[in-house]
Amino acid sequence: MVRAAGLVLALKKPAEEAKFLLLQASKAPFHWSPPKGHIDEGEQDLDAAIRETEEESGYRRSQFKVHEDTRHEITYKITQSVAHPEDVGKTKTAIYWLAVLSTNSEAVVSEEHTNAKWVSVEEAKSLNDLPGMAELWDRYAAILGTQ
C-alpha cells in the first residue's frame, strides 16, 4: 500500500467563485494535480500534506489555513508512475485536506512540476479525473460556497 498526502489549496474572494491550485507534472503524462507526495516513515498524515505542499508550491504554512475537519481519502490502483515506477500495480491511498490561501502571490513550483494554475471547480474536475477526485472537488467547492 502506497500512502500520499496533500492539500487542495483554494483562493476565495468575496462574491467570487473559489479557484483551486493545480500543478502540472514535469514528466509524462504531464498530469495536473493538487500538491501531494509520499508520507515519510513515522510522519503524520497532515504534516506530510503540509510539507509536500510547501515543497511543491512554494507557499509557506503561514500563507494558508488548513481546514483540519476536511480530511478526504481516495484509494485507487496505480496504473502509471514516472516518479515512482516501482509503485505501478500497487494500491494507493491519497489523503487531502482543504486549505485556503491568504496571499495573492504566485506559486513557485518545484522541479517536479512545470506549471501551476488556479482553476474553477469544473476545470479542476476536467484536468484531474483520477478515481474519487470529482467527489473531492465537489465537496471542497460546497464547503467554500461555490456550488
Describe the structure.
- This protein is an alpha+beta fold.
- The mean pLDDT is 92.
- β2 (19-25) and β3 (32-33) form a beta hairpin.
- The N and C termini lie far apart (34 Å).
- It has helices at 45-57, 121-127, 133-143, and strands at residues 2-11, 19-25, 32-33, 36-38, 64-77, 91-101, 113-119.
- Strands 1, 2, 3, 4, 5, 6 and 7 form a seven-stranded mixed sheet that branches.
- α2 runs antiparallel to α3 (133-143).
- The radius of gyration is 14 Å and the shape is globular.
- How many distinct beta strands? 7
Radius of gyration: 14 Å
The portion of residues assigned to helices is 10-25%
Major β-sheet, in short? 7 strands, mixed
* SSE topology string: EEEEHEEEHH
Mean pLDDT: 92
Straight-line N-to-C gap: 34 Å
Shape: globular
Contiguous helical run count: 3
Q: Structural class of the helices, strands and pairings? A: alpha+beta
Strand content: 35-45%
Q: Which regions have little confidence, pLDDT < 50, spanning 5+ residues?
A: none
Family: Belongs to the Nudix hydrolase family.
Keywords: Hydrolase, Nucleotide-binding
Organism: Mesorhabditis spiculigera
InterPro entries: NUDIX_hydrolase-like_dom_sf (IPR015797), NUDIX_hydrolase_CS (IPR020084), NUDIX_hydrolase_dom (IPR000086), Nudix_hydrolase_domain (IPR051325), Tetra_PHTase (IPR003565)
Which secondary structure elements does this structure contain, and how are they paired or packed?
Elements: E1 2-11, E2 19-25, E3 32-33, E4 36-38, H1 45-57, E5 64-77, E6 91-101, E7 113-119, H2 121-127, H3 133-143
